[in-house]
Amino acid sequence: MDLFQLRLQEFDTLEWDDSNQNEVNKYFQQLSDELRAADRADLIGLSNLNREVFAFNKSFRMVNDDSKGVSREKIEGLGPMLVGDQTLDNGDIIPLIWPDISKYVDSDFEYIQSRYNKSSNLYFKSEYGLVLYLSGDNRHNDFKYELASILFSLSQNHYQVFQSGNDKCFTFYFRKLESAIAIIESNKSEGRFRDLLDKMTDYIFRNFLSIENDNLYATRYAIDFINLILTRFNFYKDKFDFTLLFNKVNDICATHKGNKLDASVSLFIMCDRLIKKGVTATEDWLLRIARAYEELGENAATDNRLSAISYIEKAMKYYSMSSTPDESSRLENRYNELRGKIALGTTKTAMPDDYVQAVRKRITDTITELPPEGIVAFLAEFPMLKPLDDVRKDVEILKSESAFFAMLPSSVMDKFGNTVKRYYSATEIEEKNLLDSYSLTFQLAMQQVAVFIYEAFNVGKLNLTAVMESLSKSWLNEPINRMYNGYKVTVVPLENIKPGLKILFDELALINSEQRFSDNIILVVDSLTLKIEYVLRFLCERMGISTFKPIGQRTTTDVVMEKNIDDIFSELSSVKGFPDDDKYFFKYILTEKPGWNLRHRTAHGLIDSNEYDIMDAIGLLLIILRISSYKFINHESAAASTEAQV
Description:
Elements: H1 3-12, H2 21-37, H3 44-55, E1 57-65, E2 72-79, E3 82-87, E4 93-98, H4 106-118, H5 122-134, H6 141-163, H7 169-185, H8 191-210, H9 218-231, H10 233-236, H11 242-255, H12 261-276, H13 285-302, H14 307-321, H15 326-343, H16 353-369, H17 372-381, H18 388-401, H19 403-406, E5 410-413, E6 419-423, H20 426-458, H21 464-472, E7 480-484, E8 487-491, H22 493-512, H23 521-542, E9 548-550, E10 560-562, H24 565-573, H25 580-590, H26 598-603, H27 614-628, E11 631-635, E12 641-645
Antiparallel strand pairs: 1-2, 3-4, 5-6, 7-8, 9-10, 11-12
């Protein structure tokens, strides 16, 4: 038996599942290296083919397809893991797509079919099968039924592991179920497929009803489950006792009331969507939504957050549509009260009156003295924010005064109850203490800058024209020549930022005219968050920092991808002239989990409509202005470099 067959036989005996995807990738990378060393280059292609099967992004999501001139929906199918540009040894830049299903030929699919037939590990078998199904190579009914059955078996295995305490298997559980259901959907009229669907449906519903209400994943289960029903409502409308479903939602939300109220709102909204589709219910879910939003608003008001206004506004909207529309009028006075206390930036903490008055006077005096361009330059400096070195000194003082609390480990949880970061070691605890202290000074600074922006806007010294005039004089407005797929293209970073800024100032105009914030704040935050990462890539190029990196072990063809935002911040940290204060400020808003973490929350779909806040947009505006203020100096030396100077 040759090396390749020996390794495949060994691979087939492994008891791996979805959680071992990285190990599978490394296994076949190592096999390719071994084949190369053994002078068996003729088999490296098959080794890489096995590796690619597990690397494809496999999606049953429905997307629009306009390729044939007619708009229709199709399954998204197989997508690459890596997309970007690749630089060849001669300097040419070519598109990189890996893996690329369009390059597969009949012999490739025949080999994948043989691997599907031979695999005894259900996870391995399902991956080969999904490539065959999603590529359209094999959609015979017997194959589809077997593949759906395998996926259902895998989902049951994952749920058993989840019940034993392995939380990561919950995602695998639902992913397998959704894939199996999508395969069955096109054949549900056939008896065996319909019976399998009924069996799966009963299994999902029983698990939903039996999951402990205080389980951290109970809310997540409810959201995923109801979303599954809503996505294929006609498929499920006669499969469930919706009264039991609504009762379970109530039980879960009652258990998690308070600390997961935002997730409860999402559930209430989904329940109302079921009602709109014709499901009968005795409860007024619009009223439940309104009450939840009112509670969220009051909670936000105690923390002096501007989102309180948005929550109360949403509560008024849902009360007006509910069985008690008069409640909307009751909240009008509360809404106006919050606008007076929060929208203009005053705090409800125990700040001395003379301090508040002094801050307001400084703001008024500064706005009076500065012309519009000076206002923009002042915001770019963000002088309200305490220097990072001073925050570090505050931490040292706190440590000396309360050594016990300075040593406590801690963790950060997201709204779903997932622990997303832990601080256990001495170094990690020190990092968290700095973040906590920075957060306090940052909140105070943002309240002051909000007052400054509102006041400057109201007197006409801060507007879109003033900001764009300032940005047009910066490096962001300088044309940059690029080569994309062999074509010369001229890009201007500022053009990508302008639309988001325009909508932001439209929102500020609503404040000036005493109207309410619109849902367009979602567009502002989503757009500016991602465009800042776009601008940071150009900043790296200006400073001679590579924006791409190699992936995995090098084989006959080097694989590269664009660096992510964490890589970019890491690179900028080591650059001479790039302020540590700026890096910390940018990371706090964009990527720090104990901070705002806007980039990851928006990019990964982890922020709901009720969580968007005008303060998010203001923070993003400050980052853009700060970046635009950088000047670049070319140093002539044996090792020429470029640094940013503030």
